[in-house]
């Protein structure tokens, strides 16, 4: 009698979050988990929604940077600006006006409506909350509201565009 062994493997696909972008605010540099470019660029298959552009094709830069670019943002005069963007195309480094022809940097991020969180204090591992967080609410790249929270759980990966209930106020 012949015995057959069947082995079933279950694989789980995991998507790495986009590596944080830099945000300049005041005299400090912070890291943000939001991805403001998702307000402008469309990555999915199918037709591009109104008000969005098809995302440029950049060279793959690793699982921590699925978008293929690095961005530096600035908050100044109650506005969000894209200060600098770098990427690789055909293994050559490109930046700013090569990515956005006919636009001058810094770019007012008028495509972005949502929230941006910056942790200005420490992190409490026991509660998974940041101590001292500033939350900027933006409409079309303009800050319409700023909140300060003494204890706040910042979303670990969030597109910034989705409506998220804020229960820590």
How would you characterize the overall build of this protein?
The protein is globular, with a radius of gyration of 19 Å. It is mostly beta strands and about 170 residues long. The chain has strands at about 20-25, 30, 40, 55, 70-75, 80-90, 90-95, 105-110, 115-120, 125, 130-140, 140-150. Strands 1, 2, 5, 6, 7 and 8 form a 6-stranded mixed sheet that branches.
Total E-strand runs: 12
Q: What is the string of SSEs from the N terminus onward?
A: EEEEEEEEEEEE
Derived from helix and strand composition plus strand pairing, the structural class reads: mainly beta
Indicate the percent of residues in helices. under 10%
Radius of gyration: 19 Å
Whole-number mean pLDDT: 82
Query: Quick one: overall form?
Result: globular
Number of helices: 0
Q: Biggest sheet, open or closed, and with what strands and sense?
A: 6 strands, mixed
Per-chain topology:
Blueprint: E1 21-25, E2 28-32, E3 41-42, E4 53-54, E5 69-76, E6 79-89, E7 92-95, E8 107-108, E9 114-119, E10 123-124, E11 129-139, E12 142-152
Parallel strand pairs: 1-5, 3-4
Antiparallel strand pairs: 1-2, 5-6, 6-7, 6-8, 9-11, 10-11, 11-12
């Amino acid at each position: 009698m012949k015995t057959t062994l069947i082995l079933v493997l279950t694989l789980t696909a995991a998507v790495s979050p986009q590596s944080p972008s830099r945000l300049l605010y005041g005299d400090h540099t912070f890291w943000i988990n939001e991805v403001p470019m998702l307000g402008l660029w469309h990555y999915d298959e199918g037709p591009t929604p109104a008000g969005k552009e098809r995302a440029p094709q950049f060279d793959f830069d690793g699982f921590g940077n699925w978008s293929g670019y690095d961005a530096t943002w600035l908050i100044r005069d109650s506005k969000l600006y894209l200060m600098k963007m770098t990427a690789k195309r055909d293994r050559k480094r490109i930046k700013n006006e090569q990515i956005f022809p006919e636009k001058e940097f810094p770019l007012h991020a008028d495509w972005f409506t949502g929230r941006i969180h910056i942790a200005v204090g420490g992190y409490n591992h026991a509660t998974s909350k940041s101590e001292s967080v500033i939350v900027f609410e933006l409409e079309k790249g303009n800050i319409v509201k700023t909140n300060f929270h003494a204890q706040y759980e910042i979303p670990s990966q969030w597109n910034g565009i989705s409506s998220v209930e804020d229960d820590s106020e």
